[in-house]
Every structure is written in C-alpha cells, then in structure tokens.
Design brief:
- The protein folds into three domains: about 5-85, 2-Layer Sandwich (Phosphorylase Kinase, domain 1); about 90-285, Aminoglycoside 3'-phosphotransferase, Chain: A, domain 2; about 315-480, 2-Layer Sandwich (Phosphothreonine lyase fold), CATH 3.30.2430.
- The chain has 14 helices and 18 strands.
- The chain has helices at about 45-60, 90-100, 100-120, 135-150, 160-165, 170, 215-220, 230-240, 250-265, 270-285, 335, 355-370, 380-385, 405-415; strands at about 5-10, 15, 25-30, 35-40, 65-75, 75-85, 90, 190-195, 200, 315-320, 325-330, 340-345, 370-375, 395-400, 430, 435-445, 450, 455-460.
- The protein is globular and about 90 Å long.
- The N and C termini lie far apart (about 60 Å).
- The structure holds adenosine-5'-diphosphate and magnesium ion.
- The site of adenosine-5'-diphosphate has 18 residues, from β4.
C-alpha cells in the first residue's frame, strides 16, 4: 500500500471529539463499513505508525485494520491522516468504570495479558527501526528523576523508599531483550469488542524499548493510581506469564513505578495532593518494600485464554479473531463446496474436557473432510455456557457434506467421545443417544434455508427449543 498518495476532502465528514491526544478524529462511512480517520502532526511519525499497525495486523494482533493514509487540508493546516476500520467496541476504561466487579476485571485482564504476550513475541527485525542503548538511557532517566525530586520542595512519608529503590535500577533492570512496546498502554487505548476481544489502538508512542517485557506494560496501565483495578492487573500479569511470574518481576516493575510516580510530582505540581495519596496507597500496598510483591498479589489466577488447539495439518483455519475458529479442508471450501444447509452437529463439553473433546473430534472430522468450528478458548466456553451468558451449550459446530456423512459422524463421534463427562444440554437441538452430541437442521451459511421449490425460510435458532423446518424429515435411522 502506498503512503501519502491520497489527498482527501474531509469537509463532509463528521468530526468526533474523543481521545486524549491532539489529533482530529472523524467518523466516515465508506463501503459497507464505518471507518475511523485520525490526523497527526508529524508526517514521519505517521508513516511509522502506519507501518507498525499494518505489521501488527498482518501478524494477527487485534488492531483495527489499517486502510489508507494520506494528506488532508483542514483549516489552514495540511495534516497526515490514517484511516482504519471502525471498531464496534467500547474502551476498557468505560467498561471497567461501569463494572469493576472482580469477574469482569479478571476476564479483561486475562485476555489482555495473553494479547500482550503475543504482541511482545513478534519478530520485528524486518521493521528496521534504529536501535539504541535502552538501558543506558533508562538509567539516565532514573538519575534525572531522583535529582529533580531532591531539587524540588516536595517530600512525603516514605519518599526515601523510592529513591533507594531507583538507585538499584542498574541491578534490577534486565539486559535488553528486544521487545517492542505499545508505548502508551492505558485503559483508553484498549477497546473491547462486543465479543469481549481486546483491540489495541493508538500506537503513536510505540518504541523498541527492549527489555521491559514485564515491567513496563504494568506501569503504563496506571495501576498505581489506585487499588481498584487490582484484579484486572493481577489477572493480566498472570496470563502474560502463564502463571510463571519471574522472580524479580515486582522489583523491576517498581523501578518503573518509582520513576513514574516521582516524575508525576514534578510534571504535575498542581496535583501534589492527589500525587501524595497515590504514593501513599502504593507504598502501603507494597508494604514499604519495593522488591516484593504487593499485598494484592496473592495466588496466581487461572489462565483462561490460551486457545484450544487443533492439529490442523494442511487444513485452512479461518480465524476472524472472535469467539470461533473455523476449519475447512482448504481455503475457498466454504464458497465452493460446502452445502448451504443440512443437518448440523453440535458438541457440548465441560471446561475440563474441552481440549480432549476437540482433539478427538477434530481427528474424526478431518479424516472425513467435514468442516467444523470450535469456541476459541476457555474464556468463551465459560461465557456461552454459564448462567451469566447466553446459554446454548455449544462447543463445536460441524457441517456434514451430506446425509450419509451426517449419520456416520454421529456414530463415530459418539464412539470417540464415549469417555467424556456429561456436559450441558443443547436445548435448540435433538440429542444423539445419551451423548454430548446434538443435531438440528439449519443453514450452514447465512441465516436462510431454502426448500426444494426455492422458497426461503428464516433459520430459526436461539429459541431454546428444537424446531424442524416443515419441509425436512428426521432421517429414519434416527427414529427410535
Ligand atoms: N478504529 C477505531 N474504531 C472505533 N473507535 C476508535 C478507533 N480508533 C480510535 N477510536 C476511538 O477514538 C478514541 C481516541 O483514539 P486514539 O487513537 O486513542 O486517539 P488519541 O491519540 O486521542 O488517544 C478511542 O478511545 C476510541 O474511543
Ligand atoms: Mg489514545
């Protein structure tokens, strides 16, 4: 995609006033989907931003799809802009403010932690971003922070604890391990989609800041501003590290915290009182010892969001980064070969048996050439199978290519999954024997089914009971 080739007229777009940064934002309708246009001041920076976002998108990181960059005249200014796909989502800040319950925090923290791990594990070497000595630079920043603080007239109970800790920065800061950082990861720059997937936005400040895989995203989330998000942060950390927290994690994180907090005082002198409260809260929660875990960090929380895995061989996985992952024998199968409707099979499972169920069932299905999908991870399984979510009980959905295959699959799946524990009932379907396997007649693509005279009917689903279309019969083999 070419950069800066599109002079655009934005006079007809609707400006929206949101965000913390200085750029203008517009909501534009173009094609079937809304789009989001954001302006920047600096052309070079915008170009890098765009390349970076494009790179992340291509690496399957949840970011808004980058569509176009260019230049626009706005008033007297000529500004670079980026257009991205409009995300139908709300910011995590808004979500957490509305509902700070432990469970919500844990769920959001969990999905975010594993997203960050993914973000930090990308190989960026092809981006050719100039390197510099991060550690040296940060040690300089530490020194400057202490000097400025001591020069100021601001003192608070326990400030020595921070200064002492910062003095040990050299010891605690790990050597460079080449991790790219979002650079401004706060709860306003994480959007949560309707499917509860997190989307990272606003990479203006991304940097190849090296070593800080662990410590840095922590401080960027401003946890220090209050203990209210502790479940969120804890869950994020645990999921980031897959419950194996590095020994020095908090000592490292607190170097960043200390620098952030002391600088806060210098940068916002008017907020001295609130800074004081913040510092106090942070010190109390860390027991005045910045090398140890804070009080709120107790046992590791369960990691929910590792994706279930399928040994998919040459099969094509359609992953549009929502709750489902779909597998087809080859790319294009859905359009070229898959029937539009038929008897489909659903499998329900328990949290403990999900991965085994998927491993067994996917082998059977791939041997037959039958397309299927499964809920991405434990998080979604819980979401769709608990009293809080829209109960439907499905873990896998299967699209047999014809009636014969459908009947064979019922038998083979029942045999393969005979040892699986009894799971949730799928109320919209008929149950096959006493198994976790269910079936109903419906659309494989879209929402309509068609009878043999070409009349269209809505595929009735989600009504909590089995509905058989008037023109369909249950196969004789399944009648008792
Ligand atoms: N692709 C997008 N789709 C929908 N909303 C978006 C998108 N990008 C940004 N926003 C909205 O605009 C706000 C500000 O965007 P952001 O890129 O963070 O700008 P700023 O530099 O002002 O922080 C976000 O908090 C979000 O509400
Ligand atoms: Mg922002």
């Amino acid at each position: 995609m070419k950069l800066y080739c599109n002079p655009r007229d934005i006079s007809s777009y609707q400006e929206i006033k949101i965000g913390d940064g200085g750029g203008y934002k517009f909501l534009i309708e173009e094609g079937p989907q809304k789009q989001f246009l954001k302006t920047f001041k600096n052309v070079d920076r915008t170009q890098k931003y765009f390349e970076y976002q494009d790179f992340l998108f291509k690496n399957n990181i949840n970011v808004a799809k980058p569509l176009e960059t260019g230049l626009i005249s706005y008033g007297k200014e000529v500004l670079p802009y980026v257009i991205t796909e409009f995300l139908d989502a709300q910011s995590m800040r808004a979500l957490l403010r509305k509902n700070r319950g432990k469970h919500t925090q844990e769920v959001l923290g969990n999905i975010l932690g594993s997203s960050l791990r993914k973000l930090h594990s990308i190989d960026y070497s092809c981006l050719n971003i100039p390197d510099y000595d991060h550690k040296k630079y940060y040690l300089y920043l530490c020194q400057r922070t202490v000097d400025r603080f001591l020069d100021s007239d601001f003192r608070f109970e326990g400030h020595e604890v921070y200064i002492e800790h910062i003095k040990n920065a050299d010891r605690y800061l790990p050597d460079i391990d080449k991790v790219f950082l979002h650079g401004d990861l706060n709860d306003g720059n994480i959007l949560i989609g309707n499917d509860l997937a997190p989307y990272l936005i606003d990479f203006n400040h991304f940097k190849n800041n090296g070593r800080a895989a662990a410590g840095y995203f922590y401080i960027d989330l401003r946890i220090a501003q209050g203990p209210l998000l502790q479940f969120f942060v804890k869950s994020m950390i645990d999921s980031y590290f897959d419950n194996e927290l590095p020994k020095d994690f908090f000592a490292v994180a607190n170097i960043f915290n200390a620098v952030f907090l002391l600088n806060l005082v210098g940068n916002y002198p008017k907020q001295k009182d609130s800074a004081k409260n913040l510092l106090k809260a942070h010190l109390v929660s860390s027991n005045y010892d910045l090398t140890k875990p804070p009080k709120w960090y107790t046992n590791p929380s369960p990691v929910l969001s590792t994706d279930y895995s399928v040994d998919s061989g040459t099969w094509y996985c359609f992953d549009h980064r929502d709750s489902w992952k779909i597998y087809y024998p080859y790319e294009g199968f859905r359009d070229k070969a898959m029937p539009r409707q038929g008897f489909k099979i659903h499998i329900s499972t328990t949290l403990g048996a999900a991965q085994t169920t998927l491993s067994i069932a996917s082998k059977i299905l791939m041997a037959k050439g039958t397309a299927f999908k499964h809920l991405r991870n434990q998080y979604y399984l819980q979401k769709y199978n608990t009293s809080k979510g829209p109960i439907n009980g499905k873990f896998m959905a299967i699209y047999p290519n014809n009636k014969k295959e459908f009947l064979e699959l019922l038998k083979e799946l029942e045999y393969g999954l005979r040892d699986m524990p009894e799971a949730q009932l799928i109320k919209s379907d008929l149950r096959y024997k006493q198994s976790n396997i269910y079936y109903r007649y419906g659309a494989f693509k879209g929402n309509y089914i068609v009878d043999n005279r070409g009349n269209k009917y809505k595929d009735i689903r989600g009504v909590g009971e089995f509905v058989l279309p008037s023109f369909v019969k249950i196969p004789d083999e399944l009648r008792d």
